[in-house]
Amino acid sequence: MHTLQSTLRVPGRQCRAARSPRSTCLWSKTQTEVVVATGGCAPVLQGKRTPWRGILLFGPPGTGKSYLAKAVATEANNSTFFSIHSSHLVSKWLGESEKLVKNLFQLARENKPSIIFIDEIDSLCSSRSENESEAARRIKTEFLVQMQGVGVDNDGILVLGATNIPWVLDSAIRRRFEKRIYIPLPEAHARAAMFRLHLGTTQNSLTEADFRELGQRTDGYSGADISIIVRDALMQPVRKVQSATHFKRVQGPSRADPDAVVDDLLTPCSPGDPGAIEMTWVDVPGDKLLEPIVSMTDMLRSLSSTKPTVNEHDLLKLKKFSEDFGQEG
Question: What is the average pLDDT value for the chain, to the nearest integer?
């Protein structure tokens, strides 16, 4: 049998995550909820004012729910952060799964203030059915007991859950997540910022107008989808080099010394260009190759071949769940 300590990844007080455009628009509200839940505003939590014990982040895949949870957790009163997946709490041994759940909460109590983040919680706490195994039923029961905190002190412990399909959660589990926050697809300005972020310091010829256009053209795309578009666009210059039949000599920074400018670099060109030399990329010395910079044309070509991964049907179900049980992020 495996122990909880060997199963869980527990970054503790060393976890760090930087903010990104995926989470910036939701940062303030979610951060406030987490800080309050872990006792960051203890002087004002008097009388009937009690912090949330459970917060559920739900929304389409690729919108940064897991990233957002980890990012805001690092800002929350120096809390211990337990990041687990539902598979970490499932064991083939009879009764072991319930022990793992119980030990997880016990570790959290011993290291308060603490945050337990469970990714894809729907795979662990889905609605009960007649075909459900006894082991799955016992895990849900133990979760309910631990989140309720009957007979134990759960002050300073926050359970953060993330899911793409919140409507499959067991109703009793859903009630334990008192705060349910919808993380929607990014808006146009956030999508434009993501393109800039993923390009980073890579040389490119895109203008601010180009980034705005890309943001407008990617309605319905998630942050993960945009990451794939940029990664593919970054490979376009490589493909040009590999398929080129002619190269020409140009000036550019030396590979050996970026501060020095040399005039013997080779870059792909059309056969009719002045100075075109018939050769392939295998004939070009590695220190003489100057690959083309990323252009708007590269971006649009990658965009045309990359479709959004979130379908309209799932978006409607998420919005309906938000209207019935949640709140906008």
Answer: 83
